[in-house]
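Tutorial handout. Part one gives the primary structure; part two gives the three-dimensional structure as tokens.
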Amino acid sequence: QVQLQESGPGLVKSSQTLSLTCTVSGGSITTNYYYSAWIRQPPGKGLEWMGAIYTSGTIYYSPSLKSRASISRDTSKNQFTLQLSSVTPEDTAVYYCTASKGEYNDWGQGTQVTVSS
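Part two.
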């Protein structure tokens, strides 16, 4: 059974860098999925796609976050990470990691991140 689990601090101060890790078990992020991605949902708003890393290693970012976001992976640990710099309270959201097999995605349960001013 495939599981994705987000981990990271639940509270970050403004101007700091947010770092989240998604650990995948039961499937390889480089052989079982086309891409691995980060998506967030601010309170009262819809889902926002942040960026993705493909099995080839190519990374795409949302244009609105490109200057602040960085996605990487550690294939030895079957993990991928998100770093978001210079956070503000507007970055407060539930952050999800997801991985795509094409016809469907596997999802983590999400982790709440609050940015304090």
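Part three, for discussion. The chain has a mean pLDDT of 96. The two ends are 40 Å apart (CA to CA).
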